[in-house]
What does this fold into?
Amino acid sequence: MNQPVAHDVARPRWQAPTPREHRNYPYNCWWVAASSAELGRELLGRWLLDTPVLLYRRESGEAVAIENRCPHRAAPLSLGCLKGDNVQCGYHGFTFAPDGACVNVPSTGAGLPAARIRAFPVIEQAPFVWIYLGDPDCIDQVPPPHDLEWARDDSFRYVHGMMPIKANYMLLKENVLDLTHFGYVHAKSFGISDWVDPPRSTTQGDTTSYHQSFDRSPLPPVFAAPLGLAPGTAYNRENYGSFVSPALQIAAVDFVEPDSGTITGRFRVSHATTPIDASRMLYFYVIGRDHGTSPEEMDGLLKGSETGFAEDEAMIEAVQDMVLCDPRGAGAPEISVKADAPGIQARRIVERWMARESG
Ligand code: FES
Ligand SMILES: [Fe+2]
It folds into this structure.
């Protein structure tokens, strides 16, 4: 695990790039910047929370995140190239070290202290590289990135991916906190038709959770095949999940043999959403299980999940369009039912994160 990169000492007071009233995402929070597999010795530029970020690995393999905007004439540094651990701008050659210092201006033959760019703390906990874009003075007060312990469990295999979605990140969070959408959005893909009742839900501090028990319910094919069972087999499932931070939602299914009560399979999904801005996000997903783990089966898991997540994407983007085009905006009336309880709690939790940042 990488340690956070130290910040420069001589810097002005931190200010959020976007005013509070134009966003629903806190800066003082660890967010997923990339999957571990995405980062290498290529320059990767992306916008995260209205901030241009450049990501790459040092020669030692350590992840680096610095501002992606050259302070000379605003060229994206991602169009430049690596010189050892430093980045050379592709426009006029200013060169920056991983701590953001400008170490060379070719036309002067020297570094330029005034041209320093921001370096962002990063923590790599495979399969994610996390970034902190907020107030450096507050970094010790925010919870560290959530550790996906199961991903380090040798009995598990996982697949992962990233999907840019043209919607506010909370639309995805609410989507995965109200799984009554299974029978409609994913009727043709996942085929999970028994999620009808609202789940039990609880909130402790800034974590809201749900739990749904399925007793002797026919297994949909998507769950039956990896367990080596016939579709429709009466089986128990414990399905639960938590919104652990604005950045991450975790979910689990334990498959339980109904007569013995033995857990015969464990399935895990992590949904990390990082706002690009108020109406776009990067959706990072990790899906794993401890059964049906052959390469062919895991490939099938990835392809099936991508199909299902594309269905979510289409619906979420349509909802975002509706909200954006309606002159009433987010202030339009909304009806909620019991199944929305975890999603409503998540909104309140995000408001608390925002209030702490403002305070
Ligand atoms: S814009 Fe980067 S060196 Fe000129
Ligand atoms: Fe979905």
In short: Helices lie at 169-177, 182-185, 221-227, 295-325, 341-358. Residues 149-358 form a domain with the Naphthalene 1,2-dioxygenase Alpha Subunit; Chain A, domain 1 fold (CATH 3.90.380.10). The pocket of fe (ii) ion (ligand 2) is lined by residues 175, 181, 185-186, 312 (CB under 6 Å). The chain has a mean pLDDT of 94.
